Structure formats: C-alpha cells, structure tokens
Amino acid sequence: MIDTTPQLTLEVLQQFRVIYGTMRQYFRELEDCCGLPGSHMWVLQEVQRTPEIGITELAGRLGIHQSTCSQLVEKLVARNCLIKKKQSIDLRRVGLCLADEGRKAIAALPGPAEGVLPEALAAIPDVALKTLNINLAELISYLPGKDDAFASTPLAEMVDV
User: Fold this and answer.
1) How far apart are the first and last CA of the chain?
2) What is the pTM of this model?
3) Range of the domain at 72
4) Whole-angstrom Cα distance, residue 11 to residue 127?
5) CATH of the domain at 30
C-alpha cells in the first residue's frame, strides 16, 4: 500500500496557496483602482449600503472589534471619505455617511470590497460550507501558536499587498 499522505498534504498546501495568492492579487488590484486598502473600502461599502450606520453596527457587519472599526473610520474621515453626523432618527447618536472622496472610491471598485473569499464562501452550497467549517476547525486545532485574535482582523490587512 502506498502512503499518499505526503502528496495529499502538498495538494492541500497548494490549495491554500491559491486562496492566499488570489486574495493578495485581488486586494492589490482593488487598492490600485480605488487608492485605498480593502479594509477601508469595505467600511465605505457598508456605509453606502446603510447610510447613517453607527460604529457598533458597522463593526458587527465587518466582524471586527469596535476599536479597530473606530480607527478605520477615523482614517477615512481624515481622508474626506466619510462624514460623521447626527442620525436623523436619533439625534443623540452619530452616524456615518459617504463624503465625495468615498463616493469616488466606491465608484472605482473592481468587485466586492470585502474581497473574493467571502463572496466565494457565500456562493458554495450550505453542506459544503458546513463541511469546510468543521474541517478548518480541525486543522486550526493542530496549529501551534494559533492566535484566535486573527479571526477579527480583516483579510485585506492580513495579506501584504
């Protein structure tokens, strides 16, 4: 009987390379087109989808910590991409709206601001997604030095573009 484990391990490693390389290439193209990193563009896209969104809800949609979201928003406000203003529904709360530079950046998007991986994950059948979830959890359990904090870091900030 032939041991296929080394070959199978290599094939799976190559699949991860394809995923990582595809993400890097996409986020590089996105930044070239829009002039902003992918994580910034995702913030702008969510604000476009829900004008006057608050920081807490925005952080939840992006799956990131509220302080990380606040930092991204402050950078975008400084670049005249976002405007903070009192919400029309509740004047005690501050909401976010696109500014002119943010609208220009959104108009230049080559595809989804969150990247191609979330789009691909959303497109695969539920049974395949559930199986992938179980298998990736198993893989992660074997990773030495794993850091669960990475789970709340946008992919665009993890791939060095």
Assistant:
1) 44
2) 0.80
3) 5-158
4) 22
5) 1.10.10.10
